[in-house]
């Protein structure tokens, strides 16, 4: 374990004062050093003791700044991270995936991040794909990148795959862009988007948040790009927290309101169908999209 990296509760008064100003709490781990890197990795974790250390270690090899947000786990998730040169934030109570992501975003943005990668702690995302995201982000710094899992791999769980396909269609319609894997947690968000978009992120909105931010990103004029990634085998001790019926119902309710509030957004459906059939949409931006794009580009 690094000698210059200790819990907030065990450091001097100066360190505690600095930690408090930065939003740290007892139980959080201060990194040995803050390296100057424009990109950060955020890994939300809830009871992932079997996999989180390896995921964090592999992510650290690809990116200098890695944050693990322990969502009040009861299995010692934060303890297995001791000795790694990563930032560990611990939630006092379970905030859900959305709340954990937002806390990680806020920390990274306060350190000057221009882009934030997210990946799951259960081992299904390969941190070795991180350089591909970074390379694409350098070419398209304002784009939101989604790591798309291969269809054959997604079909391994039929009902979950069916639920994901349903979510993909409705979210693509509401956003007016083709989103091939709307439930993938392997993403790269541009910092400007996260600073502009404010979305509710309570414990019951974990997967709703990740869907809603895609729709809001499209409304702000952000280009959403799909990047094919591999998928590892999820550990038997790390089952998916996605509940096909309940979470899809919540996502459907959110998307339905987004569509109804825009008169069912027919232009979005037209754009989606055009892109699905390889045609270029010929319509102009809908409602306030032009102003949103101009604001985003400033």
SSE ordering = HEHEEHEHEHHEHHEHHH
Terminal CA distance reads 44 Å
Backbone CA Rg: 19 Å
Question: Class, according to the CATH hierarchy?
Answer: Alpha Beta
Structural class assignment: alpha/beta
Spatial arrangement of strands, main beta sheet: 3-2-1-4-6-5-7
Architecture blueprint of SSEs:
Layout: H1 13-21, E1 39-45, H2 52-62, E2 66-70, E3 87-90, H3 96-110, E4 115-118, H4 130-139, E5 144-149, H5 151-154, H6 158-175, E6 187-190, H7 191-196, H8 206-219, E7 224-229, H9 244-260, H10 266-276, H11 289-297
Parallel strand pairs: 1-2, 1-4, 2-3, 5-7
Antiparallel strand pairs: 4-6, 5-6
Structural overview:
This protein has 298 residues and is an alpha/beta fold. It contains 11 helices and 7 strands. It has helices spanning 13-21, 52-62, 96-110, 130-139, 151-154, 158-175, 191-196, 206-219, 244-260, 266-276, 289-297, and strands at 39-45, 66-70, 87-90, 115-118, 144-149, 187-190, 224-229. Strand 1, helix 2 (52-62) and strand 2 (66-70) form a beta-alpha-beta unit. Helix 6 runs parallel beside helix 9 (244-260).
Name the descriptors:
298 residues; alpha/beta; Spore Coat Polysaccharide Biosynthesis Protein SpsA, Chain A; 7-stranded mixed sheet; globular; disordered C terminus
Short description:
With 298 residues, the protein is of the alpha/beta class. The protein is built from eleven helices and seven strands. A seven-stranded mixed sheet has the order 3-2-1-4-6-5-7, with helices on both faces.
């Amino acid at each position: 374990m690094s000698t210059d990296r200790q819990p907030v509760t065990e450091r001097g008064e100066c360190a505690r004062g600095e930690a408090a100003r930065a939003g740290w709490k007892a139980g959080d781990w201060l990194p040995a050093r803050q390296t100057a890197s424009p990109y950060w990795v955020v890994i939300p974790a809830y009871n992932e003791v079997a996999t989180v250390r390896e995921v964090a270690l592999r992510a650290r090899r690809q990116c200098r700044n890695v944050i693990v947000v322990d969502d009040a786990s009861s299995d010692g998730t934060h303890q297995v991270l001791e000795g790694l040169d990563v930032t560990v934030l611990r939630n006092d109570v379970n905030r859900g995936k959305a709340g954990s992501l937002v806390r990680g975003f806020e920390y990274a943005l306060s350190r000057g991040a221009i882009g934030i990668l997210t990946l799951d702690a259960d081992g299904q995302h390969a941190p070795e794909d991180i350089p591909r995201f970074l390379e694409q982000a350098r070419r398209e710094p304002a784009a939101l990148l989604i790591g798309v899992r291969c269809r054959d791999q997604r079909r391994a769980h039929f009902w979950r795959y069916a639920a994901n396909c349903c979510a993909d269609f409705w979210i693509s319609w509401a956003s007016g862009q083709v989103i091939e894997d709307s439930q993938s947690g392997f993403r790269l968000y541009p910092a400007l988007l996260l600073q502009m978009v404010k979305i509710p992120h309570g414990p019951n909105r974990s997967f709703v948040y990740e869907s809603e931010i895609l729709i809001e990103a499209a409304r702000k004029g952000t280009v959403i790009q799909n990047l094919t990634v591999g998928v590892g085998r999820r550990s038997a001790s790390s089952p998916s927290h996605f509940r096909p019926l309940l979470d899809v119902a919540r996502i459907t309710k959110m998307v339905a309101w987004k569509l109804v509030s825009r008169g069912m957004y027919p232009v979005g459906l037209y754009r989606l169908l055009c892109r699905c059939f390889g045609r270029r949409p010929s319509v102009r931006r809908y409602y306030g999209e032009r102003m949103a794009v101009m604001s985003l580009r400033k």
